[in-house]
Design goal:
alpha/beta, 13% strand, single chain, 12 strands, 39% helix, binds pyridoxal-5'-phosphate, 3-stranded antiparallel beta sheet
Length: 369
C-alpha cells in the first residue's frame, strides 16, 4: 500500500520548530502581552525589513488589513475598485465593506493574474483604486498596472496574501503599491497559529492612521479620533511569526524546488501547467494545474491517496453574494474556465522528491488509462 500524500502538511513544518514556538508562546503568557506587545512590534519591524518597506502594521487577519487599506484610500459609496474575479473572496470583501463597487476584469490565461489590457479598458471616472492579487504566489504585471495607475491618477493596493517574498524583476513585492496587504492564515507561506495579517506601506500618514484604525480609532487610550475597529494582532501570533520568519526564504527555495520538479515530471501530460512570467519569481503558494477533466482527475488522485484541492471552484462574479452586480455566466470566460479546470496539487517545503514522483506517476496513470 502506497503512503498517503496529504494536500498540505503543517505538522511537518511545526515539528522542527516546536521547542522555539513553545518558548515564544510561554514568553507571551509569562509577560501577559496578549494584544500587540513587544513580540508583535518586533515582528512588524522584521517583516517591514523583509519587504523592504518603511512600515508594517500587524492585524488580526489579512481581511482586516485589506478593509483598512480601503479606508485609508477613502474608498466609499460610488467609488469603483478594479480587481480580479478569480481570487479568495476577501479581496472583494474589503471593497464591499466600505460601500465601494468591485469592478471585475478577466485574467490572463497563462498566469491567471489580472490582464493589464483589460484593466485599462475598465477605467472610468469613478475608478479610485486598482487592487490586483499576486495569485498563488506569482506577482502580477506590476509595471503595466502602475503605468495605468499613474496615467489615470488611481491608487494601487497589492493583495499580497499569497505571495510573501515573491519578486517582480528582482524586487520583493510589498512596496509597489500605495499599500500592500498580507495574510498569515495558518496555511499561507508564512502562517500564524491562528489568524493574522499585515498592512505594509512606505507612507507615514497611512501607517499612523492604520495603527489608529486597528485600535478603536485611538492613539491615546480612551480617546477616539474616528470610528475604529478591534483589528489588533494577538501577541501570541506576533511571537510565533517571529520564530517562523527567519525560515521563510529557505521554505520558499524548497517550494520552488517542488514546482520545478512537477514541471519536469508533468510536461508530457495533457495538463495546462502553471506559467511563470519572465518578470516573476513566484513563491509557489499553490501549484495549480488545469484540465477539462479536472473532477475525474481529482477523484482519481484521491482514490490513490493523493490529496488535492480547488482554488477556486466558483469565480466571485458568480457567487450568490455578488449576483447583485449583474454579471452572468460568460462575463469573464478565462476566470470561469480556470474555475472549472483548476486543481491544486500538494506543494509544501517538506514534500519529498519521492512524493512528488508518486503524485506525477498517479497523474500519468490517469491519462494513460
Ligand atoms: C488572495 C487573498 N486575499 C485575502 C485573504 C484574506 O486573508 P485572511 O484569511 O488572513 O483574512 C486571503 C487568505 O485567505 C487570500 O488568499
Amino acid at each position: 500500500m502506497n503512503e498517503t500524500i496529504p494536500y498540505f502538511d503543517l505538522k511537518a513544518q511545526i515539528k522542527p520548530l516546536r521547542s522555539e514556538i513553545d518558548a515564544a508562546i510561554a514568553r507571551t503568557i509569562d509577560n501577559c502581552t496578549f494584544c500587540l506587545g513587544p513580540d508583535t512590534e518586533q515582528f512588524e519591524k522584521d517583516f517591514a525589513k523583509f519587504c523592504g518597506a518603511d512600515f508594517a502594521i500587524g492585524f488580526n487577519s489579512g481581511t482586516a488589513a485589506l478593509h483598512v487599506a480601503m479606508l485609508l484610500l477613502n474608498v466609499g459609496p460610488g467609488d469603483e475598485v478594479i480587481t480580479t474575479p478569480f481570487t479568495f473572496v476577501a479581496t472583494s470583501w474589503a471593497i464591499s465593506y466600505v460601500g465601494g463597487k468591485p469592478v471585475y476584469v478577466d485574467i490572463d490565461d497563462g498566469t491567471m493574474n489580472l490582464d493589464p489590457q483589460l484593466v485599462r479598458r475598465a477605467i472610468t471616472n469613478k475608478t479610485k483604486v486598482i487592487m490586483p492579487v499576486h495569485l498563488y504566489g506569482q506577482p502580477f504585471d506590476v509595471d503595466k498596472i502602475l503605468e495605468i495607475c499613474r496615467e489615470n491618477k488611481v491608487q494601487l493596493v497589492e493583495d499580497s496574501a499569497q505571495a510573501h517574498g515573491a519578486k517582480y524583476n528582482g524586487k520583493t513585492i510589498g512596496t509597489f503599491g500605495d499599500i500592500s496587504c498580507f495574510s498569515f492564515y495558518p496555511g499561507k507561506n508564512l502562517g500564524a497559529m491562528g489568524e493574522g495579517g499585515e498592512l505594509v506601506t512606505n507612507n507615514p500618514v497611512y501607517a499612523r492612521r492604520a495603527k489608529s484604525l486597528r485600535e478603536h480609532g485611538s492613539t491615546l487610550r480612551y480617546y477616539h479620533a474616528e470610528v475604529g475597529y478591534n483589528y489588533r494582532m494577538e501577541g501570541i501570533q506576533g511571537a510565533v511569526l517571529g520564530v517562523k520568519l527567519p525560515h521563510l526564504k529557505k521554505w520558499t527555495v524548497e517550494r520552488q524546488r517542488v514546482a520545478m520538479r512537477y514541471g519536469e515530471l508533468l510536461k508530457d501530460t495533457p495538463l495546462q501547467l502553471p506559467v511563470e512570467a519572465g518578470f516573476a519569481e513566484s513563491v509557489w503558494h499553490l501549484f495549480v494545474v488545469r484540465h477539462p477533466r479536472r473532477d475525474d482527475l481529482k477523484s482519481f488522485l484521491e482514490a490513490n491517496g493523493v490529496g488535492c484541492a480547488l482554488h477556486y471552484p466558483l469565480p466571485l462574479h458568480l457567487q450568490k453574494c455578488y449576483l447583485n452586480l449583474g454579471h452572468g455566466v460568460g462575463s469573464y470566460p478565462v476566470a470561469e474556465k480556470s474555475a472549472r479546470e483548476c486543481l491544486s496539487l500538494p506543494i509544501y517545503p517538506e514534500l519529498k522528491d519521492s512524493q512528488i514522483q508518486r503524485v506525477s506517476t498517479v497523474i500519468h496513470k490517469f491519462f494513460d488509462s
